[in-house]
TrEMBL record:
Organism superkingdom: Eukaryota
Protein name (database record): Ataxia telangiectasia mutated family protein
Amino acid sequence: MPYFPATIKKPTKRRHIQQLSVAEMRMLRWFCGHTRRDRVRNEVIRDRVGVAPIEEKLTQHRLRWFGHVQRRPPEAPVRNGVLERVDNVKRGRGRPKLTWDESVKIDLKDWNISKEIALDRSA
């Protein structure tokens, strides 16, 4: 199986999204010259700078990568490495971990997008 960076195969955890969001807001506040003591809402700062939330950007990137992988031929190594799941591996107890393809399905459902639209480059 070919090597793929961890960011491609692993879904993003809530904790990581929260940490990225906090770091992003710190930078945006610094950019605007505000501190937390100024008590300016995040939405106001985002509107002033014109930046979308980082969670939204991560979702867009994940769906764009999904479209890229789906457009590849079935025998392509990237398609085999990302979309195929190994079924004979024993999983641990508890709730199963969220896989990358499951997180893509959730994104498609949340954004009300079909797989065909995700495949379209112009959309």
